[in-house]
Amino acid sequence: RGFGLSNGRIGLGLPDYDGTDLKAELDYLATRPEVALDKPGDPRVGLAGASYGGGLALNGAAEDQRVDATVGIITWNSLASALEPDAADPAGNAAGRTSGVFKQLYAGVFFGSGATGPGRRPNPCGRFTPEACTAYQQAADPAGPPAAIGPLLAQAGVGSRLASLRVPTLLIQGENDTLFPLSEAVRTYTSLRDAGVPTAMMWTSGGHDSPFEATETQRIRDRSLAWFDTYLRHSRTDSGPGFTWVDGRRSTTRSAAAFPVPGTEPTRFVLGGGHRLTQGGTPGAQQLVNPPGGHPTGISSLPGLAGLGAGGGGGAGASLLGQLAIDPPSQAASWTSDQLTAPMDLVGQSTVTVHVASTSDTAVLFAKLYDVDSSGSASLPNGQVAPLRVTGVAGGGRDLTVSLPTLAHSFATGHRIRLVLASTDAAYANAPAPAVISVSGVAGGGLTMPTAPTAASHASGLVVGLLVALAVVVLLAVLGTLLTRRNRKRALHRRGSLDATPVQVRHLTKIYADGHRAVDDVSFSVSSGQIVGLLGPNGAGKTTTLRMMLGLISPSAGEAVLFGEKAGPGAPVLSRLGTFVEGPGLLPHLSGRENLHLWWRSTGADLADARMDEALEVAGLGSAIDKPVRSYSHGMKQRVALAQSLLGMPDCLVLDEPTNGLDPPQIREMRELIRRYAATGRTVLLSSHLLSEVELICTHVVVMQSGRLIYDGTVDDLLSRSSMITVQLAETSSHELERAREVLTGVDGVSAVTAPKVPNGQSDNQPDRRRLAVVGDPSIRPALLRALLADDIDVEEISVQRNLEDVFLALVGADATGHAVGSGGRPSRSADDLQPTSPGGT
Question: pTM of the prediction?
């Protein structure tokens, strides 16, 4: 309600507004013949939504018992705890608390998004209900009653009605989210689990502060569908683990039966003297100032930017803004640990006990944990901060247990942990009155961090050298072949899938929004050691098929399976492919060599494993390899991109028009390289317009036309099936050539007649007005001659050839212009043209 063209009012997901709409929708679904019913008037329904829609999904399942299962994505438990943190303190420190600390910046963005609408004039309340508008205005006014917004916000979340939520619930929360942090999902998860409701929780990289990566989007989709398959369709028994999170240090995901992670051990640090977090020492006090008006302020996060620059989450330096976090020295107390002697995986909510005293009876503090690397650079994981407002601290003050942000973060060996308590933060409403606050450690207290058991990565990513060595030993035992050290991602990923077919395309289909069916139910497979040519005229769907296979675009139906594992955006199995699709994607200001080095380093593997010399030899650029790419010709860029696809000698090469821009000697060299590459048992799938090269190099071909598969088999079988008869005519006009074509088409035994282009490249794309190619058994040659002579058409020669180019043209039914027969002279629409070009390499 209230968004887009709706003339309703935004009610924050309250039952009287959005709940009423949902009830009407369920009533409507119960009348539809295609909807399954549990009983009359009760449709079989699952609800899923993200953010505001997630609130609707959870609230709707609690309000209407006809809902059978639900999935809430990056949403809230209570808007009170999300927008006014610390109002409901989970650590049990209710004594001395008033309201929470208003999340002013993000609340302003949230409220501002509904400020105006189509055809409406701006007004202070915008499209919000009067209750929501009044509560927000009071909360945003520093002089107003601080707790006015709390009761309304508490009603606008499932937290106030969890007793009514009794359907299986999956909670998916983003680690890069300062609007609805992980703690919001934890509160809902804990309550439902303790009540015996089937519940699972999944933490992902991404959230309101950074977009979900393609890999995460696919994981969210797959997990949600598995949840509904189990609890809505009852078609499977396993919906996935009880808890999963992103392990940033290993760039992978980990799972456990439940949250907190079983086996989690608390790691304790005692707040020592000075600025040290040590295992002992005498507590020492630090003083910090709250400036008049609460300004200037420290910076932890800004709406939508806490995950800026995130590359998977979890590791120090994963967030650009996290590295730019600012704590003015006079406004922060901090303690820093010694360097860690082993990696530590924090999964959950840390707590710290401190003593707080102030010149004012009320103090506002912002607690956070930094990751400090070996160079001293500090990063605030995902911009997360825990605000708290405490009273009764005037004079001698009192002890206080502070709940820090809920995190999934990996501290690497050699890094330090820094605890900071600050007096200001730009994202929140700060205390306006000036004060001096004293913070010290408490004897016997300190910082307690829930650290999960260290586990080996079960997917691609960076791992310690010992694990790589063990993985290589396993591979050697299975393969029985000496392998050089490989890309770490490839080495780990090969376990369990060594003998699988390299490429299996199963019923791939791509339909665009305008209804154009670019690829239509295409299936084929590529076995180890094969060199397979993917052929077809422009617009046949070749590149679209390759892009779906590589996870660059999502199919409308079907799937691609690589080495026994389903492919998709960012799938780990893609690390076993070397690819070159739709252009080089090189950085112009770097040299060719620097581009290759940079790309290889981004995989996390050692440069010694890249086999760089072999790749550079293939590129054949000589001294130009050390010149900026911006000075390269198209052919030079093409050669660097080909060398990039060969780095590390991957298990399968996927090449789209690899010889574009290469001269004849380089094409011959590439041909021999591919042959040697496949002779080792590796696989090549390539598309090319140079059919003579395909005939020389490929063992198999897959032919597509208008998005459909029309041939899949060996080159020899294709040539043997279609004998090509060449009819050489006397010099003639285009009209007479067309007359000859009509005569030959009418002869019994003729499958197709085409007009090839002028041979030997004498005229670009021009039809040969003296030759016709006829598909048919050689025995019909006398009949062809008789038919032509009977129509007074002079014939110079009739011969039999087996040439892939002619056979291909006959197979796809191309006319003299290369367009599909029956297109009325217009080229078939190219689905490839509908997609933007993408950098080479996957």
Answer: 0.55
